[in-house]
Amino acid sequence: MMFSKNKRMQAGDAAFSRPVIGVTVLGSGIVLLMLSMAFAISVGAADIDFFTVWRSIFDYDSTREADQIIVSLRLPRELAAAAVGAALAVSGSIMQGMTRNPLADSGLLGLNAGASLALACVFAFYPSATYLSVMIVSFIGAGIGAAMVFGLGSLKRGGLTPLRITLAGAAVTALLSAIAEGIALYYKLSQELTFWTAGGVSGTNWVQLRWLLPVVGVGIVIAIMFSKGLTVLSFGEEIAKGLGQRTLLTKTVLMCVVLILAGAAVSIAGAIAFVGLMVPHMVRFLVGTDYRWIIPCSAIFGGVLMVLADTAARLVNAPYETPVGAIVSMVGVPFFLYLARRGGRK
Amino acid sequence: MIHAQQHARVRLAVIIALLFLLALIVVSVVTGFVSLSPEQLARTLLGRGTEKEELILYGFRLPRIVITVLAGMGLAVSGSILQSITKNPLSDPGVLGINAGAGFMVVVYVMFFTVESSTYVYILPLFALLGGIITAIFIYTMAHKKGEGVDPTRLVLIGVGMAAALNGGIITLTSRLGQEEASFFANWMAGRIWGDDWTFVLALLPWILVLLPIAWAKSHVLNTLHLHEHVSIGLGVHVERERRLLILIAVALSSASVAVSGGIAFVGLMAPHIARSLVGPRLQGALPIAALLGAILLLAADTIGRAMTDPIGIPAGIVVSIIGAPYFMYLMAKK
């Protein structure tokens, strides 16, 4: 198992964290995020230089065409990409810490499929639903998916091994997406649903952002508040209890955060797997096993990853958009295979 | 005599399954948007039906039913082989990503080559096979570690990951298509039996006719592969060679089936399990039963899907998943 090495480190240094490196990584991550967003906003069908980007954001003038493109099309899109990436990465790192399972990810664990099913139901039965209700329904869907996977995975004693939870995720995903496809085909929504599933963050507007950004922000803040508990929890439930932690409270709160973040991400960008898998691993490699650093750094680098992936999706096959999920998968699958080869046994 | 009892049991199961399949075929023929009553069916079979009745029976219903039966058999036998080889009761060509690999190549073929030519029906299974084999080789090598060999758990994990990735790839490719083609593939991925004339039957039949008997003849090898590797070697089985050959057969069967039936999961998972619980784990008996059960499952799913109100119905793959996924979960909980 991949945690054995980390454990050895913890044994030598009880609170294994590297504050100096953490601050450095976090700081450079924020700079990187700014740069990649500026880059993402400036490239596209109409190339706009950095100066214009700066001017139109901080000194908006609706008569200039470039300003309109930036403020009504590109800025919301890149903000959404950053928020979605952050949400997915943070929910992935929480799940990996809580389940002590290196393969945990909202896409592989049935959350995305649950949210997709919920969305198919909304499209079919309440086509006029507002974005807020769409988002709430996605939370519920993600919750149903997660409950099924975790319930199934922990039915047997010693239950939540990487294999069991991945298989449970595959089965739940198959079931929920079959029902979703059935509904979509029956109500002739398959085109809409496909575009939405593969659509990524294109077409995000300010109305959606007004709900998305605060929800993701609050979710991440709560995650950071409970990150110390998560670090203790990641040593194992027994140790956490031995250290006097109220594990039930921590787990419940963190699970709610996971559902809110994954549901919000899915409600905007569709089912995107592998972000939540990759980012926490990379971050852990840089800042160690202390979740007080892992969570904020995951949020930043998740944002960077999604912004860059979305930019690639726009540029690879311009003027057509390549689904951003596919771009992420191209990087994510080799990563998954590597992890599965290294730590998936047992 | 245990042996004689076993044989009698297998024979009984085969007869019952065959009768059930026949009954299901009759039900399937009379079900559909344009109804064909049992009397009309009998009259048409005796050659005294109207032109319209003959067209419905021989032109639409029968070829589709034959394809469904063949594909169901192919998937079920493929699943039986894979479950024995991976020593994992939860394997099936859908779970392992082989169907997705085959499907990926089908999409590539339809996108980049002309579909108009008369031979494409026969080339399609070959393309699907190519995709299936590449995927299988990839999964197999990734799961192989020097000194440890192929770890069944790793094989399944990597397969699940590949299936997710390839399905993503299919969505990516199809999102560039026009409305009509995109909706065709949405249906195809959901497992709508789309081959509906006799050329599709001809395209699929040789694969099933050749590979099913070979698989059955190899059932004693499969029985030993299910044991520990050292035992199989001790029993004189060239484990690695036989394993590769059998994987090839399994991949070919599922790829050819997928090429005409679309992405159907869980048939290859369920049929072998039910067969084992009926006649025990010996594959000489369990394999033919699994094949018949696969045909029954898929045909039942397709018939249920077609009976849904509007003329398009619900794809068989969706019906199968809605039955199959809970069954998979039940197996996981029981194991």
UniProtKB/TrEMBL annotation, chain A:
Coiled coil: none
InterPro entries named in the record: ABC_BtuC-like (IPR037294), ABC_transptr_permease_BtuC (IPR000522)
Keywords, alphabetical: Cell membrane, Membrane, Transmembrane, Transmembrane helix, Transport
Subcellular localization, as worded in the UniProt entry: Cell membrane
Topology of the protein relative to the lipid bilayer: Multi-pass membrane protein
Similarity remark: Belongs to the binding-protein-dependent transport system permease family. FecCD subfamily.
Record-given protein name: Iron complex transport system permease protein
Annotated source species: Laceyella sediminis
UniProtKB/TrEMBL annotation, chain B:
Main subcellular location: membrane
SUPFAM superfamilies named in the record: ABC transporter involved in vitamin B12 uptake, BtuC
CDD domains xref list: TM_ABC_iron-siderophores_like
UniProt superkingdom: Bacteria
Coiled coil residues, start to end: none
Alphabetized InterPro entries for the sequence: ABC_BtuC-like, ABC_transptr_permease_BtuC
Keywords from the named record: Cell membrane, Membrane, Transmembrane, Transmembrane helix, Transport
Keyword Cell membrane in record: yes
Keyword Membrane: yes
Recorded topology in the membrane: Multi-pass membrane protein
Cell location: Cell membrane
Record Pfam families: FecCD
Bilayer-spanning residue ranges: 12-36, 56-82, 94-114, 120-143, 155-178, 198-217, 245-271, 283-300, 312-333
PANTHER family in alphabetical order: FERRIC ENTEROBACTIN TRANSPORT SYSTEM PERMEASE PROTEIN (PTHR30472), HEME-IRON TRANSPORT SYSTEM PERMEASE PROTEIN ISDF-RELATED (PTHR30472:SF69)
Family: Belongs to the binding-protein-dependent transport system permease family. FecCD subfamily.
Name of this protein: Iron complex transport system permease protein
Natural source organism: Laceyella sediminis
